[in-house]
Specification:
Length: 192
Amino acid sequence: MTLAEPSVERVEQTPTCPGHRESDGGTNGGEPPEYARQRVNRRWNEILQETRVAQTGVQILFGFLLSVAFTPLFRELGTFDRVIYVVTVVLGASATGSLIAPVSIHRFLSGQRMKDEVVEAAGRLMIAGMVLLALTIGCTLLLILRLVVPGVLAEVLVGAVMLWFAFCWYVLPMRLRRRAAARRNGEVEVQP
């Protein structure tokens, strides 16, 4: 090391895998142990990939929403439909802000040795962005279907789609998390 190079802190050497046991040679089911720095780097890379997918969807939807106000049909919308449109655009802008925020946070805090905090904040912003994106999609559907489908059928269809989103995006992951926790608890009780 030269005097010009900053000293690098030693990375924690204790694996963070919950099932890691010293007796099995440092592996968990054939997988090598994951160290704290490796875990935070993996989580950050996963967030970046998830952000790319979500950003693409929200940007396309938001671009569509912005262009709607400049169509001839927009002038014919009633007051309630205009309110739905405004709410939808605000939700879309908020979703865009939440889903792009991890990039800004990372850029401002890069090199500050705050990756754990950045990953935590980015994860929360991604969840908020996904909620806002789901609401944006629901409002967009409501706006479109109110023009196409007669009566309350539009609201019923949007309600069904939003229930499907809630199941796929929130209920299913929570179920899988609980099932995995129960399985781990069962494994812990069986082990001597």
